[in-house]
Amino acid sequence: MIKALIFDFDGTIIDTETAWYTAMREAYDTHGVELTLQQYSACIGTSLHSFNPYEYLMTDLGLPIDREEFRAGVHRRHSQLMELETMRPGIRHYLDSARAAGLRIGLASSSSLEWVEKHLELLGIRDYFECIRTSDDVAKVKPDPELYNQVLACFGIGPDEAVAIEDSPNGARAAAAAGIGCVVIPNAITSFLEFDMPRRQIESLELLEFGTVMDRSCFKNCDVQV
């Protein structure tokens, strides 16, 4: 029996990731360097340890760039782009449906608590989430399962009693490693990435009945797009 929904944040609830990639790609362009999606994908849904786009131009390419000025410019552009973004389709319906069904609602994010809570408040949905775990709470972020394991422990439930909602390969890998059935709703950026783990994949939650997700059997032998 499903007792909880656990949401990722960035790219899943609101598409912050496309804005980050666009802002970063434009910043690279000003220095005559192409930032490919394949290269940038190494830091989507996880930490910047595998690839740090803020440092790469300086540390790997040796360009004479002011780090703080570069970072500030990317953040300003990201903020401009985010003014055009709204909550992704189907998210509010799933939150309302989960609440009406008496499910626990959690959030597992590789971002900081400050970042996540700021945007949840702006979207007006902070009160839906009973348990939030972020990079502030764990030694390792996704694709490590620690974030999901902590939310499960917070709720006192097993992995077979939860469903994860994700958008990126690293997030889906974390859910799979925790033993949680995962619905993947890729965004404009992550739709081009390779998902190599079992999941239920669909373009939007609007296209997947809430009741279907509540049936654990829909994740058995599941590596399909629907």
Descriptive report:
By secondary structure, the chain is an alpha/beta fold. It contains nine helices and seven strands; from the N terminus they run E-H-H-H-H-H-E-H-E-H-E-H-E-E-H-E. Helix 1 (16-29) crosses helix 4 (67-82). The protein folds into two domains: 4-15 and 86-225, Rossmann fold (3-Layer(aba) Sandwich); 16-82. The model has no long low-confidence stretch (mean pLDDT 92). The radius of gyration is 18 Å and the shape is elongated.
Main attributes of the structure:
Rossmann fold; single chain; alpha/beta; about 230 residues; seven-stranded parallel sheet; 2 domains
Give a nutshell description of this structure.
With 226 residues, this protein is α/β, with parallel strands linked by helices. 36% of the residues lie in helices and 12% in strands. A seven-stranded parallel β-sheet has the order 3-2-1-4-5-6-7.
Mean pLDDT: 92
Strand order of the largest sheet: 3-2-1-4-5-6-7
Q: What is the CATH superfamily label of the largest domain? A: HAD superfamily/HAD-like
Q: Compute the number of structural domains.
A: 2
Supply the CATH class of the largest domain: Alpha Beta
Largest sheet: 7 strands, parallel
- The topology string of helices and strands comes to EHHHHHEHEHEHEEHE
Calculate Rg over CA atoms.
Answer: 18 Å
Number of helical segments?
Answer: 9
Q: What share of the residues does DSSP label as strand, in percent?
A: 5-15%
Oligomer: single chain
Terminal Cα span? 22 Å
